Amino acid sequence: MNGDEVVLENIERLRVERKAVILAHNYQRPEIQDIADFVGDSLGLARKASSVDAEVIVFCGVHFMAEISAIVNPDRITLLPDTDAGCPLADTITPQGLITLKKLHPQAMVVTYVNSPANVKAESDYCCTSGNAVEVVKAIEAPEIIFTPDRNLGRYVQKVTGRELIIWEGCCPIHDKISVEMVVEQKRLHPEALVVAHPECREEVLDLADEVASTSGMFKVVEDGGRDEVIVLTEAGMGHPLSKRFPDKQFFFPREEPLCPDMKLITLEKVERSLRDLAPRVTVPEDIRLNALLAVERMLEIG
Ligand code: SF4
User: Fold this and answer.
1) pLDDT digits over 23-48, tens only?
2) Nearest CA to ligand 1 atom 2
3) Which of 26, 139, 164, 251 reaches 20 to 30 Å from 267, CA-CA?
4) Rounded distance from Cα 3 to ligand 1 centre (Å)
């Protein structure tokens, strides 16, 4: 047996011994997606984390995602195999910053994208993901809505719902870097291709897309799109689950591939170590957890 096979065998053994489930985001390395019990986007993973029958959840994603698991599963152990896996978008907002903004708009309800720290969720009325942000905003009747922390998603939701939003000026550097020129180049190379974009992309990039969808929504778009070639405007890890699901289709990403270094930090060796040592664990202080849970549950209720 070579080294990789030993690691894989250890993971299989430890997964059973620890009564663990492995959840992986669509942007994770292919080999991590391939050992996961469930692969999905943040909404799918949040739902899964709240319904799995396991004592240990190994979260292969970034820190805020593991925090959601800890928020909805206080009695289970949530592991994040590499604690350096953070999210620069989540880092753009602090609870103090949000509290200051709330004071300026005391009538406003706060909708916070899941890509945010737990202590910011705790200051929010609703959470949302890219898959349900439009539905969440549509469901709110308050005169004002603060939307944090992704400005591109906020502007997209504003456009689709027609609601004026007070938008936090954060962004995902990976999606924000996808330019009009990159998309035009791919469209020139693949003129018959369907173009699907993640709503964390800039408005002018979304304007060039045939469809805007979350990573999970992209599967349905590709299925219904009826095209053999698809230009995908999101993190390039998405190519793996798409190619697995649709082996006869071709997927193209911008030439300078959008890659999130944080999403690539988790390796098979780190998953093995994490299962063996039951560390590093992610926990959320109880007062923050309870307030954040309210916002997460309101989101899960809406869909
Ligand atoms: S792709 Fe963007 S939003 Fe997702 S974890 Fe990386 S930096 Fe954060």
Assistant:
1) 999 999 999 999 999 999 877 887 78
2) 172
3) 251
4) 31
